[in-house]
């Protein structure tokens, strides 16, 4: 039995202890009550209400269009379904980059209205003052470095980040800065595995990887990708545990057939 499996609620401190004890951290996304309930029951340590909701829930090409109000709504839905996991919510694009006051206001709304246990924001040195302001207000912050999808138009591509030495050095420096500022964890997205290992060893707060190799302190995947609801999206880092797209479309087709042929509802299914 794992060290923390008897713990009723996972906290940021639990995650720190897991890193210290060399126990891997598991994180998945969820955006609604029903999914959150299943993911939590499955034993995941943390649930991320990612701004990836813009893609998988709303059908946008990037994460940029989703608003703070929409993210708060998704967070409220998830929180109602969770008994045990730590609930971390993304602050969406434009709600924290421009000035620290706005960043704090956004984070406070996410905690008070959304019911999140922590917030996640993208970037390092560039958003130092925003992180400082939020942490000083007593709000737990998870950082996010490497491929930062909110900056997609700046990068122009979703390819692996920090392959060049200068960017790799900045990533390590940003990891250390995030720890100094009081972040409780940092997500590392789509960076070389060797760099993720080096970054993880350079700080005492947990790293949670997505496309960042096996040496991070934990892993995160988007739930819809992991259970195979998205057909078109299959990056190298993704392991599909189910093929729900085929299962669900098959079930729907069978339902259509049964109704059309008057097989459903039958006598047993009628009052």
Molecular structure report:
Catalyzes the reversible reaction in which hydroxymethyl group from 5,10-methylenetetrahydrofolate is transferred onto alpha-ketoisovalerate to form ketopantoate. One of its GO terms (molecular function) is magnesium ion binding. One of its GO terms (biological process) is pantothenate biosynthetic process. This protein has 2 domains: 12-240, Phosphoenolpyruvate-binding domains (TIM Barrel), CATH 3.20.20; 243-271, no CATH class. α2 (33-41) crosses α4 and α8 (165-181) runs parallel beside α9 (193-202). It contains 11 helices and 8 strands. By secondary structure, the protein is of the alpha/beta class. 40% of the residues lie in helices and 13% in strands. Strands 1-2-3-4-5-6-7-8 form an 8-stranded parallel beta barrel, surrounded by 7 helices.
Can you describe this structure in just a few lines?
It is built from 11 helices and 8 strands. The protein has helices at residues 12-20, 33-41, 53-56, 68-79, 100-112, 128-136, 152-155, 165-181, 193-202, 223-226, 244-260; strands at 25-29, 46-49, 86-90, 118-120, 141-146, 185-189, 207-210, 218-221.
Which features characterize this protein?
271 residues; alpha/beta; TIM Barrel; 2 domains; eight-stranded parallel β-barrel; 11 helices; 13% strand; globular; Pyrv/PenolPyrv_kinase-like_dom; magnesium ion binding; cytoplasm
The major pleated sheet works out as: 8 strands, parallel, barrel
By CATH, the architecture of the largest domain is named Alpha-Beta Barrel
- Terminus-to-terminus distance: 48 Å
CATH class of the largest domain: Alpha Beta
Parts with pLDDT < 50 across at least 5 consecutive residues? none
C-alpha-based Rg, rounded: 20 Å
Structural class: alpha/beta
């Amino acid at each position: 039995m794992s060290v923390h499996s008897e713990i009723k609620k996972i906290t940021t401190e639990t995650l720190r202890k897991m890193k210290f004890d060399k126990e891997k951290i598991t994180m998945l996304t969820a955006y609604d009550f029903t999914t959150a309930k299943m993911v939590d029951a499955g034993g995941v340590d943390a649930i991320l209400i990612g701004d990836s909701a813009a893609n998988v829930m709303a059908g946008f090409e990037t994460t940029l269009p989703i608003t703070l109000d929409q993210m708060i709504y998704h967070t409220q839905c998830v929180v109602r379904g969770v008994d045990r996991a730590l609930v971390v919510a993304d602050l969406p694009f434009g709600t924290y980059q421009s000035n620290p006051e706005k960043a704090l206001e956004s984070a406070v709304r996410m905690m008070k209205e959304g019911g999140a246990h922590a917030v996640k924001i993208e970037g390092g040195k560039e958003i130092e003052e925003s992180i400082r302001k939020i942490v000083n207000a007593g709000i737990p912050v998870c950082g996010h470095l490497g491929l930062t999808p909110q900056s997609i138009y700046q990068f122009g591509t979703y390819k692996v980040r920090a392959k060049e030495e200068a960017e790799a050095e900045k990533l390590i420096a940003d990891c250390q800065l995030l720890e100094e500022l009081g972040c409780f964890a940092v997500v590392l997205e789509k960076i070389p595995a060797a760099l993720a290992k080096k970054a993880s060893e350079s700080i005492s707060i947990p790293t949670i990887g997505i496309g960042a190799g096996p040496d991070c302190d934990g892993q995160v995947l988007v739930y819809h990708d992991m259970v195979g609801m998205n057909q078109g999206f299959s990056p190298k880092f993704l392991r599909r545990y189910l093929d729900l797209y085929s299962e669900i479309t098959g079930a729907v087709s069978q339902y259509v057939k049964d109704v059309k042929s008057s097989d459903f509802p039958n006598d047993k299914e009628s009052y």
